[in-house]
Specification:
- By secondary structure, the protein is of the alpha/beta class.
- It has three domains: 101 residues, Alpha-Beta Plaits (2-Layer Sandwich); 140 residues, Dna Topoisomerase Vi A Subunit, Chain: A, domain 2; 105 residues.
- The chain has 14 helices and 17 strands.
- The strands form four sheets. The protein has a five-stranded antiparallel beta sheet with strand order 2-3-1-5-4. A five-stranded mixed beta sheet has the order 9-8-10-11-12, with helices on both faces. A five-stranded mixed beta sheet has the order 14-13-15-16-17, with helices on both faces.
- Helix 6 links the parallel strand 8 and strand 9.
- It is elongated.
- The N and C termini lie far apart (70 Å).
Length: 384
């Protein structure tokens, strides 16, 4: 669009309806003629255009029967107040030639805001490409040294020689994680009172250590393994709070901010137990036998199978992509997956307008259940 001024701050966009067939020149003539003399001569459209404070007025129009419908575009480099005044003057036009007309303001676009948005988007793209480039050699060496220092801080605890932080015994608080990589990541971000169970079975030395601590937090992965360890901890150890990595992610890959946020949203063990007891799985009589083969197929593979009501496969996707992609399958009836049924997953599926069955290996902390979402324990399904 040719606008006739070198610097544009705003673009006024309005629609016009005329009760008769007219052309663009008629509309432009009405704009100039009916706004002339309303205020001072400096605010006449011709004067504003002559002095370069508004650009060329652009019109698009079409005829529909005995009416003309169109759009009016007026670029300006005026201040906000004067631009709003020009827009109001434009709306005052009520005739084009002999026909009644109505002009309605649709929007005033701030072109500078749009330019800022494009600059920011480009800056993000530049930063992304920059970060993808190889780290300079000096930085690489420093990173390796930092990693070596962090690893040197990992101590061994108990007869099982479990990986732990240097303050695991002296601190009154204890964070329990799953493996050595989790311990290293928490050490990297300043958490020294951490210990790993190093497997699904909770070692005796960890159980005994929890009973000597004022506060114990179980910080587990957002997958099936984390759910299994939580069950073991509930049976053998003193746990005060439980928190999890985001669904489908592991503690070892979290950033410092994500670790802090996860610890802040830790829930009490009483809340965990209450939720587990409150939301029981569906009875076996309600579970279609056709699903058993799919449970066995996904078990141990971290995969999900999405089925329609005829048990036809709609998709097979990794569990890590489930939360992002599940909403795409609006005709889903059954979801069988190697993971934990979480509140987030229930919330996503509850938006469907029909009954849906979630079959997970375990049932996590569900505080709000939807009537159309049926939660099933895969163990129960296979065992029945």
């Amino acid at each position: 669009m040719s606008i006739g001024i070198t610097s544009v701050k705003y673009v006024i966009e309005a629609k016009i309806e005329v009760d008769g067939v007219v052309d663009k020149n008629d509309i432009i003539g009405a704009i100039f003629g009916q706004t002339e003399g309303i205020f001072s001569s400096e605010l006449d459209f011709r004067e504003l255009q002559k002095t370069g404070r508004i650009g060329r007025i652009e019109i698009t129009s079409t005829s529909q029967g005995n009416k003309t419908l169109g759009k009016i575009f007026i670029p300006t480099n005026l201040d906000r107040f004067t631009t709003a005044l020009v827009a109001a003057m434009l709306e005052s036009i009520d005739r084009v030639g002999p026909y009644h007309a109505k002009v309605t303001l649709e929007k005033i676009e701030d072109t500078r805001a749009e330019k800022r948005k494009k600059i920011i988007e480009r800056a993000r793209a530049i930063l992304y490409e920059w970060e993808k480039q190889k780290i300079p050699e000096d930085d690489e060496v420093l990173k390796e040294l930092e990693e070596a220092v962090i690893r040197s801080k990992v101590v061994e605890f108990g007869p099982e020689r479990l990986p732990a932080g240097p303050e695991v015994e002296s601190s009154s608080e204890l964070i329990i994680v799953e493996g050595r990589a989790d311990v290293i990541n928490l050490l990297r971000h300043g958490y020294k009172n951490v210990i790993a169970v190093d497997g699904v079975k909770v070692p005796k030395s960890v159980s005994e250590l929890t009973r000597r601590k004022k506060t114990v937090i179980a910080f587990l992965d957002g997958d099936r393994g984390g759910d299994l360890i939580l069950r073991e901890l509930l049976q053998n150890s003193k746990i005060d709070f439980v928190t999890r990595a985001p669904y489908g992610r592991e503690v070892e890959e979290l950033t410092g901010k994500e670790i802090s946020e996860a610890l802040q949203r830790a829930v009490t063990i009483e809340e965990v137990i209450k939720n587990i007891k409150h939301w029981a799985p569906e009875k076996s009589s309600q579970i279609p036998e056709e699903l058993v083969q799919f449970v066995k197929e996904v078990d141990g593979n971290l995969m999900a199978v999405i089925l329609d009501e005829s048990f036809q496969i709609l998709a097979k996707i990794p569990v890590s992509e489930l939360a992002q992609k599940i909403a795409e399958y609006r005709n889903m009836k059954y979801l069988v997956f190697d993971g934990v049924v979480t509140q987030r997953l229930v919330d996503v599926v509850s938006t469907l307008d029909h009954d849906v069955y979630l079959i997970g290996m375990r049932i996590g902390e569900i505080s709000k259940k939807s009537q159309n979402v049926h939660i099933i324990s895969a163990d129960q399904l296979v065992n029945n």
